[in-house]
Design a protein that fits this description.
Layout: E1 2-9, H1 16-19, H2 30-36, H3 45-48, E2 54-57, H4 69-76, E3 81-84, H5 89-98, E4 102-104, H6 106-111, E5 117-121, E6 126-129, E7 134-137, H7 143-151, H8 154-159
Parallel strand pairs: 1-2, 2-3, 3-4
Antiparallel strand pairs: 1-5, 5-6, 6-7
Helix pairs in contact: 2-4
Length: 160
């Protein structure tokens, strides 16, 4: 599985309250969640994110509460992948469970700039920044996780 997109850069400790503010947790409508994704840290995010874009962030992405709304909002915006130095464990698990691919790669996260063109090969774990002419190796997803993500999440995978 491979994805390509432009980088949208965030810093460290992006918590689930920033990803989707608590005032919107009364819905599971993906369009509604997407419309408010990241609005408290980047008011224009939902209007400028394009299908396939890749969020790149620093340490501890997805910290805070264990709400599944956070990765759902990101995925509903059309984001194809999140690359971070590291993730809060509950966010990592929730992302996989809803079919949002995420990769930990501190060097790629540190080097990447807003708007860089990125490609990610989940089979090999290679992240390529074509804007800067750099490649980064990280751990590829095991086949069973790739199958969950390709299916659209854990529930869809089980149904298959």
């Amino acid at each position: 599985m491979k994805v390509k997109g432009k980088a949208i850069k965030f810093g460290n400790n992006i918590d689930t309250d920033v990803i989707i503010p608590a005032r919107y947790l009364n819905t599971t409508d993906e369009r509604e969640l997407a419309a408010h994704c990241m609005e408290d840290i980047d008011a224009g995010f939902a209007s400028r994110v394009r299908s396939g874009d890749i969020i790149v962030a620093g340490k501890n992405f997805g910290c805070g509460s264990s709400r599944e709304h956070a990765p759902m909002a990101i995925k509903a915006c059309g984001v194809s992948c999140v690359i971070a130095a590291d993730f809060a464990r509950i966010f990592y698990r929730n992302a996989i469970n809803i079919g949002l691919p995420i990769l930990e790669c501190p060097k790629a996260a540190a080097d990447c700039r807003e708007g860089d063109e990125l490609s990610v090969d989940f089979d090999t774990g290679v992240i390529t920044n074509s804007t800067q002419g750099k490649s980064y190796d990280t751990f590829p997803f095991p086949e069973f996780l790739q199958n969950i993500i390709k299916s659209g999440g854990l529930l869809q995978s089980v149904k298959r």
